[in-house]
Specification:
- The structure holds two protein chains of two kinds.
- Chain A is mainly alpha-helical.
- Chain A has one domain.
- The longest helix of chain A is centred in the middle third of the chain and has 33 residues.
- The radius of gyration of chain A is 20 Å and the shape is globular.
- In chain B, helix 9 runs parallel beside helix 11, helix 11 packs antiparallel against helix 12 and helix 11 runs parallel beside helix 13.
- At the A-B interface, helix 11 and helix 12 of A face helix 7, helix 8 and helix 10 of B.
């Protein structure tokens, strides 16, 4: 148990340091500032006092950047180890493939979560600077966003074991972004299609990761109030079960992989 | 080598011949992409700006409804009347739910019926819908202005966006100076819009006694503009503005006679 903990700790530390050394986060923060500063200085028609559009734009950037970081982290967990053949000395140590996978996943998760926390600190700071208040919905929104990032890392990790890096990043982002924006409308789209296509769309609706469950941006921006606790718990359970299934499949793919 | 030369010659011929043939076949007016206006947005996006402009007006509308997309409900004009009727109610439960998921947030029975066979819809209807339908009003309506501003920046010929922005400024925020600035800017970019000129008169009329004379002059100029453009050739909205301008002139005359 102690050995396992030490191994996980080492893997987490490695992934964490790798992300922060790559400077991706700082580049994204600079990009965000380049977009947000001119937007915050704008005075549409000379009318002052509007702030919700800034919150919405900032939250959209936080979601986009955090997804970018999460997919990149998931992709870089094992694929570079195979390419550089460093997987051999890694597995030569007394560590099982399953433990390696889970440890790497935890590392990517810690790195992505730290980036997300950093983005939210900047977001809340900008709200407070503009004279806004701490939204009551924020803790729930944060928790669901963290759960979404955990799901995105798992999706990317599984994809990295099944396809090439570019294909994985493209497909993962299409699935997650597509579901984020259109997931809840899929049954409506299916109604207007022929039976075979409708069945396909409904199957996608049933099994694809519902990224939209985790999106509380409108609640935060417009002050709708918190989600009911049973619903909140249901979404977290959904994320947990989905992540467990994805990691199970990833573990299977890694075990079957010839090294 | 010879094949390459032939292919190159054929491609060059096609590049030169097809556009000129299309122009002859379709005439100058039928060219599919005509850049209206100036600036990088006009060149880069062309007609797509109209779609973007309409989408941004819809976004402003959703802000008015506290973040709910009301595209499935009523039209802007009807919504304005609805808003006028409920001007003193900042929040109220809506009666006209259409069945979309946002609306489902307010209908317990509908939620339960759907959730019985679709747990994903059950979660969505609760995560993505407020329990109460709210309207922005008073000074808070300033939140709509950036989206309307973005809409007219994307498509300066979207008259609905200009009049909606002026309505928000004048009727909701009670800032008639801002409303007049918006209408003036809109008219500078759309000098042949009867609706915008009518709207300027309406804002001046709403300012009260001091501005009745100038309001009347603007209504008269709106009618003159409509006549000079040809009443039969005007779109329906512009003709309606022409007719309303006449009614306002009658009303002003009645008030000044008293």
């Amino acid at each position: 148990m102690k050995t396992a903990f030490r191994q996980f700790k080492a893997l987490v530390k490695l992934s964490f340091l790798e992300l922060w050394r790559r400077n991706d986060i700082f580049a994204l923060v600079l990009l965000g500032l380049a977009l947000m500063v001119p937007l915050s200085m704008a005075s549409p028609f000379g009318a002052d006092g509007a702030s919700r559009y800034l919150d919405e734009a900032a939250l959209l950037l936080v979601w986009g950047f955090s997804l970018f970081i999460a997919l990149g982290s998931g992709q870089r967990l094992l694929a570079p180890e195979f390419e550089a053949r460093t997987i051999y000395p890694l597995l030569a140590k007394p560590i099982s493939r399953g433990r390696l996978l889970f440890g790497k996943y935890l590392g990517a998760l810690a790195a992505s979560w730290s980036a997300l926390a950093f983005f939210y600190v900047l977001f809340v700071g900008s709200v407070l600077l503009r004279g806004g208040a701490f939204a009551a919905e924020l803790p729930q929104a944060l928790a669901l966003h963290f759960a979404f990032i955990a799901l995105a890392v798992a999706v990317s990790l599984l994809g990295s074991l099944l396809m090439s890096a570019s294909a994985n990043c493209a497909l993962s982002s299409i699935v997650l972004v597509g579901m984020f924006f259109f997931g809840r409308r899929l049954p409506e789209y299916a109604d207007g299609l022929n039976p075979a296509l409708a069945w396909l769309v409904k199957a996608v609706y049933a099994i694809a990761p519902h990224a939209e469950f985790f999106d509380m941006r409108q609640r935060l921006v417009h002050g709708w109030g918190a989600v009911g606790w049973p619903v909140f718990a249901a979404v977290l359970c959904y994320a947990l079960v989905y992540i467990a299934v994805l990691l199970g499949l990833a573990s299977l793919a890694l075990r079957r992989r010839r090294l | 080598m010879r094949h390459w030369a032939l292919a190159f010659a054929a491609a060059a011929f096609a590049v030169l011949a097809i556009p000129s043939a299309m122009r002859r076949l379709c005439g100058d007016d039928a060219m599919p992409q005509v850049v209206r206006g100036e600036g990088a947005l006009a060149v880069a996006f062309g007609d797509a700006r109209e779609v973007l402009g309409r989408a941004l007006v819809q976004k402003a509308d959703s802000y008015f409804h506290g973040g709910i997309d009301m595209d499935c409900h009523v039209s802007h004009e009807a919504e304005r009347e609805h808003h006028d009727e409920h001007n003193d109610e900042h929040e109220h439960h809506h009666d006209e739910w259409c069945g979309c998921e946002e609306c489902a947030g307010g209908h317990e029975e509908q939620q339960e019926e759907r959730a019985a066979f679709d747990p994903w819809a059950w979660i969505n209807s609760r995560v993505r819908a407020p329990q109460e339908h709210m309207h922005l009003d008073g000074k808070k309506s300033v939140e709509l202005i950036p989206w309307l501003w973005a809409s007219v920046a994307a498509d300066p010929h979207n008259i609905e966006a200009w009049t909606t922005a002026a309505y928000v400024a004048g009727d909701m925020m009670k800032d008639t100076d801002l409303a007049l600035r918006i209408v003036a800017e809109g008219q500078a970019k759309n000098p042949k819009s009867v609706r915008l000129r009518f709207y300027e008169g309406r804002v001046r009329y709403a300012r009260g006694k001091g501005d009745l004379a100038s309001a009347r002059a603007v209504f008269v100029s709106a009618r003159d503009l409509a006549v000079s453009l040809g009443l039969d050739a005007l779109p329906e909205e512009e003709r309606t503005a022409y007719e309303f301008a006449g009614r306002f002139i009658e009303e002003i005359d009645r008030r000044t006679e008293k």
